[in-house]
Every structure is written in C-alpha cells, then in structure tokens.
Fold:
Amino acid sequence: MMDFLMEYNLSGLVIGICTFLIIGLFHPVVVKAEYYWGTKCWWIFLLLGVIGVLLSLLVENILFSTLLGVFAFSSFWTIKEVFEQEERVKKGWFPKNPNRTYKF
Structure:
C-alpha cells in the first residue's frame, strides 16, 4: 500500500484527506462533549493529545506518524473549542442540556 502511495505521489493527498476528516470528526465531538459533560471534559482531550504526540514520535511510518500528529494537535485544539462551545451555548446558538446545571 505504501509503495502504491509513494509511486504515484499520493501521500500528500491521503494526508490532506485524512486531516480534513479528522478535523471534521472533532466538530460534532466538541458539541456532544460540551452538551453531556460541559467544560470539565477538557482533560480527556489533553490526554488524547499527549498520547497522540507520543505515538507520533514512536511510529516510524511517516504517513501514520503525520496522521497521529494531526490527531494530537486536533485534540489540543478541541480543548479551546469546548470552552468556546460553552460560550455558544450561553449565547443560545446551541441547545442547553436540560439534565445539567450551568454556571451561567
């Protein structure tokens, strides 16, 4: 598989498509995580990011190492997004979870 990607110079396209999908996957994760757990779930994304960084450093395959790095830093970015999602809920742009109590 890797030979096929290298032979036809498709590695960049695969990385680009996978990056797009990883980032796209994190958007609904942010919305659901804030809805069910609020901002107290930020440490989960920190842990996922650290694990992603460590795995990226350990994996020798450049394609998988790159995608793990994208996953790791998308996880770190999600920490910021969870707090911003709380603000969006506060503004009424997203629904509040009726089973949770809010600080605002």
